[in-house]
Amino acid sequence: MKKISILFAFLLGFSNFITAQNSYSGSVYEENSTTPIPYAIVKVQHKNIGIVSNESGKFNLSNQGIDAGDSIIVTCLGYKPKFFSVSEWENDMNIYMAPDPIQLSEAKISAKRAKEIKIGITNGGTKSLFIPLFTKKEFSTDNLIGREIGTIFNIEKNCSINGIHIYVASNKYDSIKMRAIFYSVENGLPKDIIVNRDIIFSVSEKNGWVNIDISQHNIHFYEGQQIALTLMTLDETNKDQFFIYAKMLSKNGLLRRDNALGNWKKSKGGMSVYISGFVN
């Protein structure tokens, strides 16, 4: 009986060790530095499981749905990704990421005055239709950071993009921090990130058009391209309402996923968002 008790105690201790190893927490820093990288994405390879680090680069990923043979990837726009096996993970791990130099593409600009271009819904949408980022009933959720809403654009001419424009219906935040992400599109859903720039901005306007200058990012799109633009919430302190005007459309033009790396959902309609720039 004593031997059985000892064996049980050993197994219980071993089980606790395994559980401790499955606490996937850490901090993300720039290589050879103590400078934190905010809002890095920590995801499980080949699974829709992930989380976004906070403003200080810290994160704590739940072990739910993660198996011993899985790999964890840490990514952030502008940095080379880091790969870890679950078996080698250490609690409160410090992760150091090397910069990923941006190869700037060249755009041919005509000697004539460049023609302005606007792509998306520019007329403000329907005043009675709103798209929520999240609503009051969701405030009990522990982790709202990383939610994305977006729309799909068809690029009809080669162009350089210098602005993102969002028609806010209601913003009850003092200021809400967001990230704009450009994806390729496959089967009507976002697939791969196609702009390796971390476009982070804050919205303090309570309603009306919000204009974000992205001219410094040197972004070009090409005729025939289909792209998705999504807005990811990076707010981790305030919990209030934020709505964007929408428009009724017969095609699937609205995109949403409720957490970092979750499954995409699409629905009919359009979000009152457009991008602007010049025809190349």
What does this structure look like?
This protein is mainly beta and 280 residues long. The chain has 2 domains: 2-97, Sandwich (Immunoglobulin-like); 116-279, Jelly Rolls (Sandwich), CATH 2.60.120. 7% of the residues lie in helices and 47% in strands. It has 1 helix and 20 strands. It has one helix at 2-21; strands at 24-30, 41-44, 50-52, 58-61, 71-75, 82-85, 93-97, 116-120, 126-132, 148-154, 159-171, 176-186, 189-193, 199-203, 208-213, 219-221, 226-233, 242-257, 265-271, 273-279. The strands form 3 sheets. Strands 8, 9, 10, 11, 12, 13, 14, 15, 16, 17, 18, 19 and 20 form a 13-stranded antiparallel β-sheet that branches. A 4-stranded antiparallel β-sheet has the order 3-2-5-6, with no helix packed on it. Strands 4-1-7 form a 3-stranded mixed β-sheet, with no helix packed on it. The longest helix has 20 residues, at 2-21. The radius of gyration is 22 Å and the shape is globular. 29% of the residues are buried. Pfam families: CarbopepD_reg_2. This is TonB-dependent receptor SusC.
- Principal-axis shape: globular
CATH architect. name of the largest domain: Sandwich
Q: Bin the helical content.
A: under 10%
CATH hierarchy class name of the largest domain: Mainly Beta
Radius of gyration: 22 Å
Pfam family, one: CarbopepD_reg_2
Protein name: TonB-dependent receptor SusC
Organism: bioreactor metagenome
InterPro entries: CarboxyPept-like_regulatory
